[in-house]
């Protein structure tokens, strides 16, 4: 294990339980003291999951903990969000750390002592509620990091902004939510951070491994809806009407050519996928309309806008050529999650301190999306992944996030807590 000198003193290696090299002894002790608490909090949140914009119990526990630490706490932001400020004894930058709190409408199938048995009716379907994406672990680890950093208040060269965010998985229909709403309600105006750090657990990496990528990391995610209007007629005489099904089929073919023929994918990759097509009720009746919905994933904001425009042009013109009419609506979702290249390079040594150099790896681009992207549009951001699959299991075969079989190994939480802490302390130290 490597040794180095920090703050003029010879550092000691962190105990194996935290796999952090070269950190001050006080930080080591504080990290050790919160490990069991982080696990206990996580188990409680896992057993009591709450859906987006409904994280009332979770937010209450978080706020109480932060107040007990002596932080300045603001609640009820974007419905249930919590923001807390830890003011260090010395002047310096404000570092933002973010955790998301919401669960998913998924029935848990993992046999755990703290398995969720909560149920709900989601869009007319009776279903369970589960932390199938690991947000329970994010909340617990950030609560642990808050306790560690609060214990080092006199050594902090700046302030820490803790953001516990609702609705990362998307707000309920008819509501706003998530990072976008928190920003809309002014959290960056009241507590403007200099930098933002986020962490997400994943089953695709082994426990304790940190995955990162400089530049575009996670895709933007947008939804489109196309309604093709025709003229209903009998299936035996299609010339007496306008067939929206035939038109819709040509629209699918045309839109599938946008990425392969009209977008410069040597710049960044993109995906357009149809998820649902519906129209008609009988085999011998040509309907008057067809409805189609799909998703757009992309890693470049300029390409994103081009795809929007080309979907509208392609659909409307193809429909017009067959005598039909196409209405196209595109709903912007999450932007591209971009890790600031300079910040990523600057903080890489911190990731290696927290996890061990051998446990830090560059990940490929991810076509999933994250609303941490909204924060990273405002200030330099760094978003990393934390492995959560036990070492005796094959991470490539592990159930993915959002699966009813998703499982997060508790031994990884110590690395996650250490990572959030190390990023904060090192950024402050380097900004002096």
UniProtKB/TrEMBL annotation:
Residues making up the signal peptide according to the UniProt record: 1-21
Keyword Transmembrane assigned: no
Domain of life: Bacteria
InterPro entries named among the record's database cross-references: Amidohydrolase, Bact_exopeptidase_dim_dom, Peptidase_M20, Peptidase_M20_dimer
KW Magnesium (keyword) present: no
Annotated ranges, domain Peptidase M20 dimerisation: 223-318
Keywords associated with the record: Hydrolase, Signal
Protein name per Swiss-Prot or TrEMBL: Amidohydrolase
Biological source species: Colwellia maritima
Organismal lineage: Bacteria, Pseudomonadati, Pseudomonadota, Gammaproteobacteria, Alteromonadales
């Amino acid at each position: 294990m490597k040794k180095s000198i920090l703050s003029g003193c010879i550092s000691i290696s962190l105990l194996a339980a935290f796999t952090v090299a070269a950190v001050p002894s006080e930080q080591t002790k504080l990290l050790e003291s919160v490990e069991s608490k982080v696990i206990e909090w996580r188990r409680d949140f896992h057993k009591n999951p709450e859906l987006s914009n409904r994280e009332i119990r979770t937010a209450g526990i978080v706020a109480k903990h932060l107040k007990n630490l002596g932080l300045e706490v603001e609640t009820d932001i974007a419905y249930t969000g919590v923001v807390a400020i830890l003011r260090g004894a010395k002047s310096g930058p404000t570092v933002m750390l973010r955790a998301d709190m919401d669960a998913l409408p998924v029935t848990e199938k993992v046999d755990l002592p703290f398995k969720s048995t909560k149920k709900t009716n989601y869009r007319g379907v009776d279903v369970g509620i589960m932390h199938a994406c690991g947000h329970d672990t994010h909340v617990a680890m950030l609560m642990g990091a808050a306790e560690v950093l609060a214990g080092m208040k006199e050594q902090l060269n700046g302030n820490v902004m803790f953001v516990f965010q609702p609705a990362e998985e998307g707000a309920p229909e008819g509501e706003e939510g998530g990072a976008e709403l928190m920003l809309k309600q002014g959290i960056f105006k009241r507590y403007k951070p200099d930098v933002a750090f986020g962490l997400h657990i994943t089953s695709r990496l082994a426990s304790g491994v940190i995955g990162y990528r400089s530049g575009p990391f996670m895709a933007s995610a947008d939804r489109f809806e196309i309604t093709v209007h025709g003229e209903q007629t009998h299936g035996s005489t299609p010339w007496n009407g306008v067939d929206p099904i035939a038109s819709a089929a040509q629209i699918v073919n045309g839109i599938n050519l946008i990425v392969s023929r009209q977008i410069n994918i040597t710049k960044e990759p993109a995906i357009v996928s149809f998820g649902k097509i519906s129209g008609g009720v009988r085999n011998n009746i040509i309907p008057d309309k067809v409805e189609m919905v799909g998703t757009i994933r992309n890693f470049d904001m300029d390409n994103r806008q081009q795809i929007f425009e080309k979907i509208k042009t392609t659909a409307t013109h193809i429909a017009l050529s067959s005598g039909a009419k196409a209405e196209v609506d595109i709903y912007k979702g999450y932007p591209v999650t971009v890790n600031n290249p300079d910040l990523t390079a600057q903080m890489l040594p911190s990731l290696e301190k927290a996890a061990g150099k051998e446990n830090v790896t560059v990940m490929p681009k991810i076509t999933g999306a994250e609303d941490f992207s909204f924060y990273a549009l405002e200030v330099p951001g760094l978003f990393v992944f934390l492995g959560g699959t036990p070492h005796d299991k094959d991470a490539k075969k592990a159930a993915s996030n959002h699966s009813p079989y998703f499982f997060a190994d508790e031994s990884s939480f110590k690395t996650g807590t250490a990572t959030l802490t190390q990023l904060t302390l090192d950024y402050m130290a380097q900004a002096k």
